[in-house]
Amino acid sequence: MAHDHAPENTVTTETPFARAVLIGFSLLFLLLVLAMPLLAVFTEALRKGLPAFLESLSDPETFSAIWLTLVVAGISVPLNLVFGVAAAWAIAKFEFKGKAILSTLIDLPFSVSPVISGLVFVLLFGAQGLFGPWLQSNGIQIIFAVPGLVLATVFVTFPFVARELIPLMQEQGSADEEAALSLGASGWQTFWYVTLPNIKWGLLYGVLLCNARAMGEFGAVSVVSGHIRGQTNTMPLQVEILYNEYNFVAAFAVATLLALLALVTLVLKSLLEYHYSAELSASRRH
Amino acid sequence: MARSTSGGWQFRQPSVLPGFRWALGYTLVWLTLIVLIPLAGLFFRSASLGWHDFWALALERRTLNALWISFGCAFIAALLNVIFGTLLAWVLVRYRFPGKRIVDSMVDLPFALPTAVAGIALTTLYAPKGWIGALLAPLGIKVAFTPIGIVIALVFVGLPFVVRTVQPVMEEIDREVEEAAATLGASRFQTVFRVLLPGLAPAVLTGFSLAFARGVGEYGSVIFIAGNLPFKSEIAPLLIVIKLEEFNYPAATAIAVVMLLISFAMLFVINLIQAWSRRRYGYGA
């Protein structure tokens, strides 16, 4: 941490006045841009008091939205976890041709609009889609149903775990694994007892970010969901519907749950950065 | 193909570690199924429209306007994020103040807060009767339901991209560079603007391009605050959704392909500039 031994002479730092102005300005900016929206969520939800807040949360449609969000994230996150570990193992531990292209392709979903991420699955599996007629004649529904929500979510959160693990595993190198193998460990033993303990905090970090995005995804999910109330509405979609019905207290009440999820994510993420910074990839060490 | 040891060309360098084929195979299959085939399907679908129909749909006035608004607002927001994000990174790296750790974690809020939640919260704040909107209304400034509102939402979602790419590079700056500049008679202002900031250019550009790419495609945080008036505050992703709801798949496909092509082209150009600026200034990132 560079600031711990920061010299106090003004040759390599600013005057106390300039520092105070810059800090003050930054804090004001953060207050306006980040803190106030968060505060607004809670005040709007409690605008008509706690009973109204609790009542709007006990709506059965809200319950089903919460359940669906948990189901979709519960399927998508493990899928991307396994993918992320496999991709990082191939990319970080081996040298092969086309590695750079593979890395770029894995990051591709980050530069695709969420709406387009949903659209591509509608074009494949929707009623007018490429496989639409075949799916219909076999009674399989993907779009406007849970499989579509999962596909869109997996697409959007595709790079999260891999992005976290690749740099970490590259920094760690393969010496530990080679030692284990030379001592007679099998490939799986090496992975379970050597690699996994080395990367566990980085993996958790990636899963945390992946999960936050999976539960909060809006654009992609909105396109494939069809907004069937009580059936294909995830929490963010439920927020939209309630808001557009001018049911502001209920919309913000559901939003508080998502905001709490965000705060928990941030706290856990900071704890990881603080306690296990040596076991996260270099860019995560503060 | 994995073990072609004959000749000079080798697919991979030998390694004692197991599982290469399994891991790479799984990665490729999964990547192809989830990302490549769906994206290829989009381009396949647009190709089946035919050259003439495709451009007729893509160059419709409403589409062009929406693209202009999406890319324009994302560009302005990314520029603002470069200014404020770099300042924030500077303050977080260089200064000590109470509550700094909390401020540092708060920067990631836009990564963690679902976009729909950010959208309705920002709209409530900036609506004419909201906390901030009510202060701006007497000045004649309307934020919600105008392109300014879109820019504000995009500043919110893009901020951490710039801070988190610039911050680690700033931490790496060698203090001796500043001391050298100072001993050679540079004022602090000159040192910061002519010595330190140019070296951060590659990182700042990376942050800019990430924030910009995110802003172009952003949907959830924008649609509530934008007001969505065609030709005034309608973004391209929303137009795709509108076309889909009208079951106008060809139009939705055409807009999506144009958006993707422009985004990829811009990212490619930014990558080139970055490679150049890394050679020129060099702190990496």
TrEMBL record, chain A:
Main location class: membrane
Cellular component annotations (GO), alphabetically ordered: plasma membrane
Species the sequence originates in: Gellertiella hungarica
Signal peptide: none
Function: Part of the ABC transporter complex CysAWTP (TC 3.A.1.6.1) involved in sulfate/thiosulfate import. Probably responsible for the translocation of the substrate across the membrane.
Oligomer and partners: The complex is composed of two ATP-binding proteins (CysA), two transmembrane proteins (CysT and CysW) and a solute-binding protein (CysP).
Keywords: Cell inner membrane, Cell membrane, Membrane, Sulfate transport, Transmembrane, Transmembrane helix, Transport
Gene Ontology MF terms: ABC-type sulfate transporter activity
Species classification: Bacteria, Pseudomonadati, Pseudomonadota, Alphaproteobacteria, Hyphomicrobiales
PROSITE patterns: ABC_TM1
Record's protein name: Sulfate transport system permease protein CysW
TrEMBL record, chain B:
Entry keyword set: Membrane, Sulfate transport, Transmembrane, Transmembrane helix, Transport
PROSITE patterns in UniProt: ABC_TM1
ABC transmembrane type-1 domain mapped to chain residues: 67-270
One Pfam family matching this protein: BPD_transp_1
Example of a GO cellular component annotation carried by this entry: plasma membrane
Principal subcellular localization: membrane
Molecular function, one GO term: ABC-type sulfate transporter activity
Membrane-topology descriptor: Multi-pass membrane protein
Location of this chain's protein in the cell: Cell membrane
Domain of life where this protein originates: Bacteria
Family the UniProt entry places it in: Belongs to the binding-protein-dependent transport system permease family. CysTW subfamily.
Biological role stated in the UniProt entry: Part of the ABC transporter complex CysAWTP (TC 3.A.1.6.1) involved in sulfate/thiosulfate import. Probably responsible for the translocation of the substrate across the membrane.
Complexes and interactors: The complex is composed of two ATP-binding proteins (CysA), two transmembrane proteins (CysT and CysW) and a solute-binding protein (CysP).
NCBIfam families, alphabetized: 3a0106s02, permease_CysT
Name recorded for this polypeptide: Sulfate transport system permease protein CysT
Naturally occurring in which organism (per UniProt): Gellertiella hungarica
